[in-house]
């Protein structure tokens, strides 16, 4: 009878989070295995559009013992540079990894550890780290099926460039980071763009002489932990602020795009045939995004004044366009055929897929329960998720601290189970 391979720790997922845990486990001298269903860098390489780039500066790329290696720390890496950065990190780590191996089931084992069913056969582990992220299942609403087949539909995960879409106008649904950047990509290409504006907040890019992220770093915002955040665990549900790193970085003001010809609408409310319907929330969503934008500026102003920093002044924010100022310009429904809309790009996010985990590790909404990544299920951990501990937890910025912490927890757990010498 063939024995089932056993490992002290198995890490599921070989992205930046899983590789960071591997690096710290190697430093702790803990034997482990990384299982990656595709290959290192797959999502960055295969699930991003051609002009994709980071929205945070390169200096925030701080994988453990592997900070940004290039000559442009205040720039924003494009897709190929991100892949190269991650591959360089993997080359330094030299993780014990098996690529092309998917985990299809994780359950509690009879031995007190865990049983894993994989595409490479069964395995067991004393401890398991889930480093698969939360971007597994593209979200498309059920009513999308009611739209005429004459209109091509695509999710942002499959969008690559404007030439991929048929000639004509394009409706982008969603104004988070992906939605506004795809909108801009299409606009730069000369396409007529319609944008469904949701509740996502926006951020300044450069303000009073610095990138806003640099000010926030100085102000200690990125050290704020979720247990001290005013919203508590609800911070995990907040959408990221939209801005861009394209062409040296700039902020995105949807009102200015409206002046330049982009047609803004409220949130998507439904569709049937060639008709799409919108909620009456465009003005509110624009105002709410601007209020967050202005509040960030106010916080920076207060910090500058308190610290006595000599920084250039900037004029107050003034909206350049408002839907209420253009009578009848914002219809509650449009006909795609009449507007020449040939394609819709859905950019309303993803859902995680934890269906393969058969353990009591989730709340009533299916979200993983943890404190700093440590699950209430003994020996199970999560990493690479937004606000695992801080704002940077789901990004290159905070994963080093998170992975080091989990490695220390696993080391302590192993040591506590070792027999005490006489």
TrEMBL record:
<dbReference type="InterPro" id="IPR024000">
    <property type="entry name" value="CHP04046_FMN-dependent"/>
</dbReference>
<dbReference type="InterPro" id="IPR050982">
    <property type="entry name" value="Auxin_biosynth/cation_transpt"/>
</dbReference>
<dbReference type="InterPro" id="IPR036188">
    <property type="entry name" value="FAD/NAD-bd_sf"/>
</dbReference>
<protein>
    <submittedName>
        <fullName>MSMEG_0569 family flavin-dependent oxidoreductase</fullName>
    </submittedName>
</protein>
<dbReference type="GO" id="GO:0004497">
    <property type="term" value="F:monooxygenase activity"/>
</dbReference>
<dbReference type="GO" id="GO:0050660">
    <property type="term" value="F:flavin adenine dinucleotide binding"/>
</dbReference>
<dbReference type="Pfam" id="PF13738">
    <property type="entry name" value="Pyr_redox_3"/>
</dbReference>
<keyword id="KW-0560">Oxidoreductase</keyword>
């Amino acid at each position: 009878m063939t024995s089932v391979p056993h490992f002290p720790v198995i890490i599921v997922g070989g992205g930046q989070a899983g590789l960071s845990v591997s690096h710290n486990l190697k430093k702790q001298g803990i034997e482990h295995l990384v299982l990656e269903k595709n290959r290192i860098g797959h999502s960055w390489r295969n699930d991003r559009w051609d002009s994709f780039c980071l929205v945070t500066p390169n200096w925030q790329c701080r994988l453990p013992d592997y900070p940004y290696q290039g000559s442009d720390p205040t720039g924003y890496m494009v897709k190929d540079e991100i892949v190269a950065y991650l591959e360089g990190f993997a080359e330094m780590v030299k993780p014990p990894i098996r690529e092309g191996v998917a985990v299809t089931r994780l359950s509690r084992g009879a031995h007190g550890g865990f049983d894993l069913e994989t595409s490479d056969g069964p395995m067991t582990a004393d401890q398991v780290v889930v480093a698969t992220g939360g971007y597994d299942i593209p979200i498309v609403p059920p009513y999308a099926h009611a739209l005429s087949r004459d209109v091509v539909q695509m999710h942002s995960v499959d969008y690559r460039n404007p030439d991929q879409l048929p000639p004509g106008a394009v409706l982008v649904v969603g104004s988070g980071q992906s939605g506004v950047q795809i909108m801009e990509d299409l606009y730069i290409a000369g396409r007529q763009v319609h944008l469904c504006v949701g509740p996502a907040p926006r951020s300044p890019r450069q303000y009073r002489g610095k990138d806003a992220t640099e000010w926030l770093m100085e102000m200690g915002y990125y050290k704020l932990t979720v247990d001290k955040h005013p919203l508590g665990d609800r911070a995990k549900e907040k959408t990221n602020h939209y801005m861009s790193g394209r062409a040296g970085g700039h902020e995105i003001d949807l009102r200015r795009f409206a002046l330049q010809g982009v047609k803004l609408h409220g949130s998507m409310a439904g569709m049937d045939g060639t008709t799409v319907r919108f909620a009456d929330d465009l003005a509110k969503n624009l105002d709410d995004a601007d209020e967050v934008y202005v509040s960030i500026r106010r916080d920076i102003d207060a910090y500058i004044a308190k610290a006595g920093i000599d920084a250039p002044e900037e004029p107050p924010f003034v909206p350049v366009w408002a839907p209420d100022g253009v009578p009848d310009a914002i219809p509650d429904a449009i006909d795609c055929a009449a507007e020449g809309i040939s394609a819709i790009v859905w950019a309303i996010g993803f859902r995680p897929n934890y269906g393969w985990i058969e353990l009591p590790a989730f709340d009533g909404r299916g979200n993983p329960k943890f404190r700093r990544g440590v699950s209430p299920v003994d020996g199970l951990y999560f990493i690479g998720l937004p606000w695992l501990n801080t704002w940077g937890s789901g990004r290159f910025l905070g994963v080093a601290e998170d992975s080091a912490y989990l490695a220390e927890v696993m080391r302590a757990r192993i040591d506590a189970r070792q027999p005490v010498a006489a």
